[in-house]
Amino acid sequence: MNKPSIYITRKIPGELVNIYENQYDIRMWEKEEEPVPREILVKEIQHADGIISMLSEKIDEELLSKAPHLKVVANLAVGFDNINVDAAKKRGIIITNTPDVLSETTADLGFALLMATARRVIEANNYIKTDQWKNWAPFLLAGTDIHHKTIGIVGMGRIGEAIAKRAKGFDMEILYHNRSRKEEAEKKLGASYVSFDELLRLSDYVVSVVPLTDETKRLFNKDTFRKMKPSSIFINISRGGVVDEEALVDALKNKVIEAAGLDVFKNEPINSEHPLLKLNNVVCLPHIGSSSIETRTRMIQLCLENVDGVIQGRGAKTPV
């Protein structure tokens, strides 16, 4: 009798999959930093009972139509906008993600990005490395304070709450906007629920933690940036598609807002010719929000547990 087949769309450490080798025929794309080519994924999915996918894979109607045995797709992320969930549901295919396990790590990165942008850390590092530091001056690379400022969190899910917890330690005033009020979070964190427009108007730091949906696509646009303070800093650790990047470039060039820190982009990866990378008042990171060794390991383990649970009939731990 043939073993159930699992295909993993990126190379992951062998020790994480070895414990499943007796139960499953496990195959994976052998490159860690390059996405699996579409034609290979099409070929592999025809035989797979389970798929572990990355955000770089488009799991669409066409692909799912070629997967007669597929029971589960485990996405190595909280978001799942790369997957046609409706098409999967029609075919009885379970979609899972990796919530909770990455919330604190992503919040760490988000707050580090906020601090690096506010205090011009990357710019200062490059200043020394390019031998520009000749003398000390009172306002040399002066940034802006973080403590006692107002942070506006757009999207008060698990990561948003974790960001608020860090902000509380800096004695920041915490505002948030969400589809629904989180009264427990308000009590625990001292956060205040406000309208989106009010958040934009009052916040020194606007942090996007919203999922990418039809409603949030280009949520941050020309009009949005104009409603923010000229001194405000925009941070995005959610999805690149929630931002109109041309409008953001224009806002940064023309000092509509002060600066931006970005871990995500509309089309990834970007290269050195991207307009945002030509601006000194932007800090850009290569989508590393949950990228700690501990968290990525736990995310992979959770994906494997989800796939195993569905195939063995126990069900998924974290179904979408």
Polypeptide structure, described:
By secondary structure, this protein is of the alpha/beta class. The protein has helices at 14-17, 38-45, 61-64, 85-90, 103-118, 121-129, 158-169, 183-189, 196-202, 222-227, 245-253, 293-311; strands at 5-8, 25-28, 50-53, 72-75, 94-96, 150-154, 173-177, 192-193, 205-208, 233-236, 259-262, 282-284. Helix 5 crosses helix 7 (158-169). The two termini are 31 Å apart. The model has no long low-confidence stretch (mean pLDDT 96). The chain folds into two domains: 5-99 and 293-311, Rossmann fold; 103-284, 3-Layer(aba) Sandwich (Rossmann fold), CATH 3.40.50.720. The chain has a seven-stranded parallel sheet with strand order 8-7-6-9-10-11-12, with helices on both faces. Strands 2-1-3-4-5 form a five-stranded parallel sheet. 33% of the residues lie in helices and 14% in strands. This is 2-ketogluconate reductase.
Describe what is shown at a glance.
With 320 residues, the chain is α/β, with parallel strands linked by helices.
Strand and helix layout:
Elements (H helix, E strand, L loop, with lengths): L4 E4 L5 H4 L7 E4 L9 H8 L4 E4 L7 H4 L7 E4 L9 H6 L3 E3 L6 H16 L2 H9 L20 E5 L3 H12 L3 E5 L5 H7 L2 E2 L2 H7 L2 E4 L13 H6 L5 E4 L8 H9 L5 E4 L19 E3 L8 H19 L9
Parallel strand pairs: 1-2, 1-3, 3-4, 4-5, 6-7, 6-9, 7-8, 9-10, 10-11, 11-12
Helix pairs in contact: 5-7
